[in-house]
Amino acid sequence: MKVLLFGVLADVVGKPVIESEASELDDLKKNLLSEFPELKKYKFQFAVNKEKVEKNISLNAEDEIALLPPFAGG
Amino acid sequence: MLSKEEITRYSKQLLLPEIGKVGQEKLKSARVLVIGAGGLGCPVLQYLAAAGVGTIGIVDHDVVDETNLQRQVLYSTEDVGRLKAIVASERVSEMNPFVKCEVASWKLESLNAIEIISSYDIVVDCTDNFETRYLINDACILSNKPFVYGGVHKFEGQLSVFNFISADKNPGPTYRCAFPEPHPEETMLNCSLTGVIGTLPGIVGTLQANEVIKMITGIGDVCSGKILLINSLTLNFSEIKIQRDENLWCDIPKSKEELKNKNYFISSESIINS
């Protein structure tokens, strides 16, 4: 599945889209943080299929995940 | 009542049946507070003033810096060193003498936030730091005011209307529903050092002004319950839906009095000084 990265998170990971095969959101988080430990420095939110989610949910290959940080700049 | 001069000035808006004379009079009697007169604040102030918002409050304690001029389009080279709130109010008055400007050239802080915000109908968050954004959010929740959030990072922007009360009286999500916690302290300074393309705050700020006009005149669909994500390089505009969730407001003061005593600014100042 596609994982979209916004703002500073795309800078950290080095690209705006990555692929993941995680079967649930918690696994995806764990994999991301171990592959890109610098992400731990930031607070960000997860959205699945354009809807913000607070809890662990199962994921399918066709889901679209987004990692969303707030933007301070103005 | 609109004067003859105002009817001529606003004729292109008066022609729109969605706005018309009733909408224009609503704009004239509206009071909008713009916090931050920087990249986002400049287009917000320009378009609200041009549209005929009757009273505009401007809060900014900063002075114009040469590095601002690439995107803060209200200011000229000779304004460098002058207080932004003062220069901005001069420009607004030159643009539209029918607009009354109320200027606060000092910092929005816990102690003054509720008092400043209370006399306005709508707040526009055009600030450049997380601390003030959480302060605006909490003060708007405690004062029952909607606020229009805009944020920019390099080539990307975000827009949402937070704490919006819909026609059926349901309050929409807040900034803390979208982003419950700020980045850890050490990361905040890094964020303030990233660059930004000059047109981006122009785009996001213009959309913020558009939301304000929609709310005042009661037309269209307000950008509440979602965050609009804008990428100025790909021209991709997408939305993320968010819900109001008061369980996420872990850190919000319970009363206006409690807000006055909360320090929103400890972290960044200690980092800047270190």
Structural overview:
The complex is a heterodimer of chains A (74) and B (274). Chain A is α+β, with helices and mostly antiparallel strands and 74 residues long. Chain A has a single domain, classed as Roll (Ubiquitin-like (UB roll)), CATH 3.10.20.30. In chain A, 23% of the residues lie in helices and 26% in strands. The mean pLDDT of chain A is 96. By secondary structure, chain B is α/β, with parallel strands linked by helices. Chain B is 40% helix and 16% strand. Chain B contains 12 helices and 8 strands. In chain B, strand 1, helix 4 and strand 2 form a beta-alpha-beta unit. The C terminus of chain B is likely disordered.
Radius of gyration of chain B: 18 Å
Using only CA atoms, what is the Rg of chain A? 12 Å
Annotation, overall tally of beta strands of chain B? 8
State the end-to-end CA separation of chain B: 56 Å
CATH topology of chain B: Rossmann fold
CATH architecture of chain B: 3-Layer(aba) Sandwich
Q: For this structure, what is the CATH class of chain A?
A: Alpha Beta
For the largest beta-sheet of chain A, the strand count, sense and barrel status come to: 5 strands, mixed
Helix content of chain A: 10-25%
Which oligomerization state do the chains in this entry correspond to? heterodimer
Q: Largest beta sheet of chain A: what is the strand line-up?
A: 2-1-5-3-4
Annotated CATH homologous superfamily of chain A? Beta-grasp domain
Given the C-alpha coordinates, what overall shape of chain B results? Answer: globular
> How can the largest sheet of chain B be summarized?
8 strands, mixed
The whole-number mean of residue pLDDT values of chain B reads 93
Mean pLDDT of chain A: 96
**DSSP strand content of chain B:** 15-25%
Q: Which stretches of chain B of 5+ consecutive residues score pLDDT under 50? A: 268-274
The first-level CATH class of chain B is given as: Alpha Beta
